[in-house]
Specification:
OB fold (Dihydrolipoamide Acetyltransferase, E2P); 2 domains; 8 helices; globular; alpha+beta
């Protein structure tokens, strides 16, 4: 079993709080993604689990056993790093097999396990090459093979795809997800890329300012963000957030108004995804604005509309682009409208 539990995990560096009272349970075999901007605490969390940092307080349990005082080498985990960390003077086979050599696995058994691990990442035909002769994607596959060759009970991955180009990242995401499901090994994956998080994770933990903002499946955090930070962080482009005021079940904004029955009076923020906004004639929608930009994406056009001081992203058909500065109206899908408290930023249900 490789379930992981973090109890009141706290980490400070002098006066700086890197992680504040984090509580998290990760199920055996789960692919969990830690997502957030730089400095949010996600890499600190991974380093604490790996044993590369000591917690200021709190407990780390792996397989039900407290491991705070267990050295990294005895935690039965493997890490995959952003920079691959391959030995340039060793062949692919020697790089993959190095953890087994350190563990004094017999040469014959070591060779069999290296070939099996290399086959899983489609590198069996390049075992005699050295890292300098490989592409970025091939080097990352070697790093993955080196991690899985030991059959650890836990994988820790720290932005392993960030050095790859966009096309290769897409391919490697699919391969990584398939490999993790095949091995059924608990995986904790750190990234600041919300596309990686949405496509890879069973569950996503979104962090900001050293605290958890929301935990949920990709579908849950996309469709029901817990606060304005999550709403503005998840999605490409992210959710549009428009501040205003609710009075007598009606939300008013400097460029328009719409009914919000059942909402309390006071400051509020409404949010809408680009696919949930429809372009109308000026004055015929909920809000009025002017086209700031029109970008053809191939299968759709992304309009950015200036509504007062806000920029609103709208997805329309590929042939529905508009001229810059053209006046338009915007109609929001009421069934998919999000409402947040104007002071706390927390979701209103």
């Amino acid at each position: 079993m490789a379930a992981v539990e973090l109890r009141d995990l706290h980490k400070t560096f002098g006066a700086y709080t890197a992680l504040e009272r984090l509580n998290l349970e990760i199920e055996d075999g789960e692919f969990l993604v830690l997502l957030g901007p730089s400095g949010c605490g996600k890499s600190t969390t991974m380093r604490l689990i790996a044993g590369l940092e000591e917690p200021s307080s709190g407990d780390i349990l792996i397989g039900g056993k407290r491991v705070n005082d267990t050295p990294p080498r005895d935690r039965d985990l493997a890490m995959v790093f952003q920079n691959y960390a391959l030995y340039p003077h060793m062949t692919v086979a020697e790089n993959i097999g190095y953890p087994l050599k350190v563990a004094r696995v017999p040469r014959t058994a070591r060779a069999d396990r290296v070939r099996a691990a290399a086959a899983k990442v489609e590198m069996a035909h390049l075992l005699d090459r050295r890292p300098g002769e490989l592409s970025g994607g091939q080097r990352q596959r070697v790093a993955l093979a080196r991690a899985i060759v030991r059959t650890p009970r836990l994988f820790l991955m720290d932005e392993p795809l960030s050095n790859l180009d966009a096309k290769l990242r897409t391919v490697m995401r699919a391969e990584l997800r398939h490999l993790q499901k095949e091995l059924a090994t608990t995986t904790i994956y750190v990234t600041h890329d919300q596309v990686e998080a949405m496509t890879l994770a069973d569950r996503i933990v979104i962090l900001n300012d050293a605290r958890i903002q929301q935990i949920g499946t990709p579908k849950e955090v996309y469709e029901r963000p817990a606060n304005t930070f999550v709403a503005g962080f998840i999605g490409g482009p992210p959710m549009t957030l428009i501040p205003g005021t609710v009075t007598a079940d009606r939300f008013t904004h400097e460029t328009g108004a719409l009914d919000l029955p059942g909402q309390p009076d006071g400051p509020a923020i409404i949010g809408a995804r680009p696919e949930d906004i429809r372009v109308t004639a000026p004055g015929a929608g909920d809000l009025d604005g002017t086209v700031f930009s029109s970008e053809l994406l191939g299968d759709a056009t992304l309009l950015t509309v200036r509504v007062g001081p806000a920029l609103v992203a709208v997805k329309v058909g590929p042939d529905d682009g508009r001229d810059m500065d053209a006046p338009v109206g915007l109609s929001l899908d009421r069934a998919k409208l999000h409402v947040f408290d104007g002071q706390t930023g927390q979701r209103r249900d």
